Amino acid sequence: MAHKPRSEMIAQTRAKLIAAARRAFGTVGYAEASMDDFTAEAGLTRGALYHHFGDKKGLLEAVIEQIDAEMSARLSAISKKAQTPWQGFVDECIAYIEMALEPEIQRIVLRDGPAVLGDPTTWPNQSACIRSLTGSIQGFIDEGSVAASDAEATARLLNGAMLNASLWIANTAEPEAASRKAVQAFRELLDGLRVRKREPA
């Protein structure tokens, strides 16, 4: 039997550890998740975890990175289904806020993530998110459908609003109610950016 390439073995080991940790973090939370338990579940040792991720915190970062990539793919698909670019932009933003209702995202990304990794605005994925938002907003400004302003500044304000809405939803005793309020307020916020065409006299 031919041996697998080293790169493939490394990728498989990392994938096993991330999958086992993701189940543990999503079920019992980061603090209660036992490294020995989820490494054993993956058929690996704690040494493998240290080798590939440094420590439990590094593994949490990898799990959040995986979840974030899945969220981005879902949001992109939602945007592409819309009939217009603006509607796609609105749908994508609203879907991001509503994802805060999902138990795994709530627990791992929006509760344990900030508690362990610090302020989410400093996470690497935020830079990519702001770049994407900036590009979209600049496109709307260029076509005249959104009032002229600094695209990056607007992107950062919208990103902050979405992130804080998500954190609110994930940490409140009434997440469904908070989600409805946040979605309604954010729709009005986006609507306020639009340029109103004057009716002919």
Polypeptide structure, described:
Residues 34-53 bind DNA. By secondary structure, this protein is mainly alpha-helical. The chain is built from nine helices and no strands. It has helices at residues 6-28, 35-41, 46-53, 56-81, 85-98, 103-117, 124-143, 151-171, 175-191. α1 crosses α4 (56-81), α4 (56-81) crosses α6 (103-117) and α8 packs antiparallel against α9. The chain is elongated and about 65 Å long.
List the SSEs and their pairings:
Blueprint: H1 6-28, H2 35-41, H3 46-53, H4 56-81, H5 85-98, H6 103-117, H7 124-143, H8 151-171, H9 175-191
List its salient traits:
201 residues; mainly alpha
Order of helices and strands: HHHHHHHHH
Strand content: under 5%
Compute the CA-based radius of gyration: 20 Å
Structural class: mainly alpha
Percent of residues in helical segments? over 70%
Mean pLDDT: 92
Shape: elongated
Tally the helices: what do you get? 9
Largest sheet: none
The counted number of beta strands is 0
The unreliable regions are none
Distance separating the two termini = 81 Å
